[in-house]
Design brief:
It is built from 26 helices and 24 strands. It is α/β, with parallel strands linked by helices. The strands form 7 sheets. Strands 1-2-3-4-5 form a 5-stranded mixed sheet. It has a 5-stranded parallel sheet with strand order 11-10-12-13-14, with helices on both faces. Strand 2, helix 1 and strand 3 form a beta-alpha-beta unit. The protein is globular, with a radius of gyration of 30 Å.
Length: about 750
């Protein structure tokens, strides 16, 4: 399915819009249900939903209104039929987004249109982006979706320290977009064609600057034929990058001549128009050479030039584009002749792709572990961390690879003192407290109530998990009382929202959205016991959005407040990425294939299956019988000595996550391979020196993915295999105890060279 969250701005405010592509096999309700899970899984929150009709369908807004009124529309295809089916109960169909405006994006006479809000339970407010017909709205959605497609397809080749890309137009740039990669699915190709339709509406033929985007060209021809009944437009493509030179121009002339000849044989007329799709333009040189070629020849074709991506200042007003990235620093020309000459990664002029990989070694240093170690030192008397735990609060069970026991944290005197210092610093005393119902949140509320009871009268507490207030059903009376209490808070007063933990921010954002729907105008103060996002940048972004107030509501309060007593960065791994769930799945696979496990594996399999309710604090790693136990021999940059296995692992995982999510001053962040860049944890640091305690080595190997451990350079990977083999075969006590853990890592593919030689 094709969903993406697009960041836009309107009236000085940032907001998030969810774009959903409708497909014929889904009802509107099912599609929105899947989209809601996508939003939750991606830790996103949205203030607007755009439901887009299939690209090969077009209709008028009147036809859409007929479908919404349960009247049979004239034409329009599968999308209007789906809307007609949903219109019998729109409240139910849109139940997943009860307070979010939903708009339809569609084609009408080959132009992009956006309908008004079709969600009967959502209200349009002054800050709603499309409420006032913002002219730049569609442009922002187009840019956001195409940038999302670039990200999903890994089409953006990242900057490589000490290197530059040499483009076919001979520019030296830090990054490059391999546009052919964006054709990774039918829906992605349809999305690009959707935005191209208005540009190609009057075209008779299509010329592509490279065969690598041929799927887009042929699909565009097909869609236009369906939309307005024209014959399939002929599609031609250049065989390589067009530049000044006899060979290049001769092959280009052959392509254009074939296109003109096919048009003439079909139309029996001269002067046809062709759209030339340029995958990416840096200097406009390709367009200039093509214009000269057309002027000097007798092709009887007029060209309109459209670039999918503008990556440089072409100085040509007649070249249009879908996305302008020219002001991005990654695509600005490098100044040559200054300092050392960087290595060159040439882009092949036929395939528009670099021809070699670069391994970048990443090191983990004290700065990455500083915050988590400080946290561990503060609470060294509290058993906070466990792993592989399934936790239940006031919602469905949720598996945490790393679980933070917030109830134990809240009971600490250190925590209480830090909390009270924050409460003293709030801009004003709240008129009421809002919190969810689960036990840890209740403990947190009790501490806050105790503080305020010492400095004044008690503050009323509203218990509600989501602020979805129902007029009927078993919660109707409580919900009505909640509505009354919220309505009694004056505009110059504040509401304090408490929660024990911030991971994705879904609960806090849900509270904010529903308070807006309830037209709450007072100040909102958000306070969490611990913010443990998987990206500190994400936490700061959510804070900024929660603090924002619309201009019409700044007369009394300039902004809201968002605070956390503690903040640490931790991976947010559920069962699919939990290292211990992956280990258990390995045993399940062996059982399925062979029907048996050895004694040690059976015991371990049982342990992993039975300890999920409480999680694991010790015995996290495999250790052979009679081998030395895993422990920190001396204090590490990750943790002081004397901590549980779970605490040490959490610290290592936090530092690795910081390296993934915070870009260092020099070089890239750790993460998935993005050709031609492979970021790899420096193997010598966890297999030879630096982090020599077995518990640190095991934690690093468990916390990192295969891509983050394996070199693409065969020579470097062979060296890593030799380093690992030396540990496995070592007779030294503090090394040999790692043997069982290393064998599991080999079985899970983290040492592929060793796996093939076993």
């Amino acid at each position: 399915m094709h969903y993406c969250v697009v960041k836009c701005s309107h009236q000085g405010r940032d907001y998030s819009a969810l774009l959903i592509q409708h497909t014929q096999d889904k009802s509107v309700e099912d599609l929105l249900d899947e989209a809601h899970r996508f939003v939750q899984g991606g830790k996103s929150f949205v203030e607007l939903v755009l439901l887009r009709a299939p690209v090969a369908e077009q209709f008028s807004e009147d036809a859409l209104l007929d479908a919404l009124r349960s009247r049979e529309p004239v034409g329009g295809g599968s999308f209007l039929e789906a809307i007609l089916q949903a219109s019998s109960d729109l409240t139910s169909a849109f139940a997943r987004f009860p307070t979010v405006p939903i708009h339809v994006m569609f084609l009408n006479e080959l132009a992009v249109s956006v309908s008004g809000n079709i969600n009967p339970t959502a209200s349009i407010t002054p800050e709603t982006p499309v409420a006032d017909g913002d002219e730049g709205f569609i442009d922002q959605i187009r840019n956001g979706e195409l940038e999302h497609i670039v990200s999903q397809s890994r089409a953006l080749l990242p900057s490589v320290p000490g290197c530059h890309y040499l483009t076919p137009s001979h520019r030296q740039v830090r990054s490059f977009v391999r546009v052919g990669n964006i054709q990774y699915s039918r829906l992605a190709i349809d999305a690009v064609c959707f935005w191209l339709i208005p540009f190609a509406a009057k075209a008779d033929a299509i010329l592509l600057d490279t065969w690598s985007i041929s799927s887009i060209g042929f699909n565009l021809s097909r869609i236009l034929s369906i939309l307005d009944g024209r014959p399939l437009m002929p599609v031609e493509m250049l065989s390589q990058y067009l530049e000044a030179g006899v060979t290049s121009q001769v092959t280009a002339a052959e392509s254009i001549d074939r296109l003109a000849a096919e048009l003439y044989s079909r139309e029996k007329k001269l002067g046809a128009r062709a759209i030339c799709l340029v995958s990416a333009t840096h200097t406009g040189s390709l367009v200039n050479v093509l214009r000269e070629l057309v002027d000097l020849s007798d092709f009887q074709l007029e060209f309109d030039f459209v670039a999918l991506f503008k990556l440089g200042d072409t100085g040509d007003a007649q070249i249009r584009w879908l996305v302008d990235l020219s002001q991005t620093s990654a695509f600005m020309s490098l100044v040559t002749g200054q300092g050392d000459s960087p290595a060159s990664i040439p882009i092949d002029p036929q395939v528009y792709f670099p021809l070699r990989y670069c391994d970048i070694e990443i090191e983990i240093r004290e700065d990455a572990a500083r915050d988590i170690k400080d946290f561990i030192v503060r609470y060294d008397h509290v058993d906070v961390f466990s792993v592989h735990r399934t936790h239940i609060t006031d919602g469905p069970p949720r598996h945490h690879a790393i679980h933070v026991d917030t109830r134990a944290l809240i009971q600490s005197n250190v925590f209480r003192n830090r909390l009270y210092a924050l409460l003293k610093g709030l801009s004003q005393r709240p008129a009421a407290i809002l919190s969810p119902r689960h036990a840890a949140a209740t403990d947190f509320v009790s501490l806050v109530e105790k503080f305020y009871s010492q400095v004044g009268n008690p503050i009323p507490n509203i218990l509600h998990s989501d602020l979805v207030l129902r007029a009927a059903g078993p919660t109707a009376n409580d919900d009505e009382e909640t509505r009354r209490l919220l309505g009694s808070i004056d505009a110059d007063a504040s509401l304090l929202i408490l929660d024990d933990a911030f991971i994705t921010g879904a609960r806090l954002v849900g509270f904010q959205t529903r308070l807006r729907g309830l037209e709450f105008v007072g100040k909102i103060q958000y306070l969490v016991a611990i913010a443990r996002p998987d990206s500190l940048e994400y936490w700061n972004d959510v804070r900024r959005k929660l603090e924002w107030r619309h201009a019409s509501r700044r007369a009394v309060h300039r902004k809201n407040e968002v605070l956390a007593v503690e903040t640490v960065c931790l991976p947010n791994w559920q069962a699919d990425r939990c290292p211990w769930c992956i280990e258990k799945a390995h045993y399940d696979s062996v059982l399925q294939e062979t029907g048996e496990l050895d004694k040690r594996a059976r015991a371990r399999h049982s342990q992993l299956a039975n300890f999920m309710d409480d999680g694991l604090r010790v015995e996290l790693f495999l250790c052979e019988e009679n081998a030395a136990p895993f422990k920190l021999e001396v204090e590490s940059v990750f943790s002081p000595t004397g901590q549980s296995d779970a605490t040490v692992f959490a610290s290592v995982a936090s530092a690795v996550q910081i390296r993934r999510t915070e870009r260092p001053q020099v070089g890239p962040a750790l993460g998935p391979r993005r050709y031609p860049l492979a970021t790899v944890l420096k193997s010598a640091e966890y297999l030879v020196h630096t982090y020599t305690d077995s518990i640190l080595r095991a934690s690093i190997i468990r916390a990192c993915t295969r891509d983050e451990l394996e070199y693409t350079d065969p020579n470097l990977e062979r060296l890593r295999a030799e380093q690992a083999h030396a540990l496995i075969e070592s007779s030294i006590v503090y090394r040999s105890n790692l043997r069982a853990e290393m064998e599991l890592a080999i079985a899970l593919g983290k040492f592929p060279t060793l796996a093939t030689t076993k």
